[in-house]
Amino acid sequence: MTYSVKEMFYSLQGEGHHSGRPSVFCRFAGCNLWNGKEASRATSVCTFCDTDFIGTDGQNGGKFKTEAALAEAIESLWPENAGNRFVVFTGGEPALQLTPALIRELQQRGFECAVESNGTLPLPTELDWVCISPKGSSEVVITECDELKLVYPQQNALPERFAAVKARYRYLSPLNDWTQSSLLASSHGNTQQCIEYCLQNPQWRLTLQSHKILNID
């Protein structure tokens, strides 16, 4: 198959269990919960996405016709002769394109492979780390994962709804109002709500988007 990649870059993971870890991010184009166009945002299942996942015109983006070609591009972004290789597949929704063959190709090159998914589609069992982040009223088909990261509060996706999901770690991430210009101002009230919920339900932990606070990719 041909892989459509919006962008790829090397940075620090900004949130969740691997926060602060050097990672190559491979952002696939396309999503099944929003088409990425502002005109349809209000009527989509996911209304608060702040990511551009349309097309293949981003940094190091493009179309890759083989697993080896994409794996080579990802490998080229990792520091030469450095170990602890880690790649995060994200989107959009990476499950629309991610294949076992690509994962195996990267694992053969020494990469640990992680995914950040909305959980609505099956994922390859070959993955080393699975993080799901449910959105709105969408049906989640993933019942077991390493990390459950929930944007909070969402009227149709409150933490109690996912009590049956088997997750090693559970995180709440404050909802940012995409219409606001200031990250801290828009999330302040929701951050406090996250703090209060975690204190009352200690199986949940707070995570912040440190990459945005620190202004890094």
Overall description:
It contains four helices and nine strands. It is of the alpha/beta class and 217 residues long. The chain has one domain (3-213): Aldolase class I (TIM Barrel). It has a nine-stranded mixed β-sheet. Helix 2 (100-108) links the parallel strand 4 and strand 5. The longest helix has 18 residues, at 183-200. The chain is globular and about 45 Å long. Residues 178-186 have low confidence and may be disordered. GO terms for molecular function: 4 iron, 4 sulfur cluster binding; carbon-nitrogen lyase activity; magnesium ion binding; S-adenosyl-L-methionine binding. Its EC number is 4.3.99.3. Keywords: 4Fe-4S, Iron, Iron-sulfur, Lyase, Magnesium, Metal-binding, Queuosine biosynthesis, S-adenosyl-L-methionine. Substrate binds at residues 12-14, 27, 90.
Task: Give structural attributes.
9 strands; iron-sulfur; 4 helices; alpha/beta; 217 residues; TIM Barrel; metal-binding; rSAM; nine-stranded mixed sheet
Instruction: Write the CATH homologous superfamily.
Output: Aldolase class I
Task: Outline the biggest β-sheet.
Answer: 9 strands, mixed
Widest sheet, order of strands: 3-1-2-4-5-6-7-8-9
Contiguous low-pLDDT stretches (5 residues minimum) are: 178-186
Count of all domains: 1
Described by the principal axes of the CA atoms, the overall outline is: globular
Domain Radical SAM core: 18-217
Subunit structure: Homodimer.
Pfam families: Radical_SAM
Pathway: Purine metabolism; 7-cyano-7-deazaguanine biosynthesis
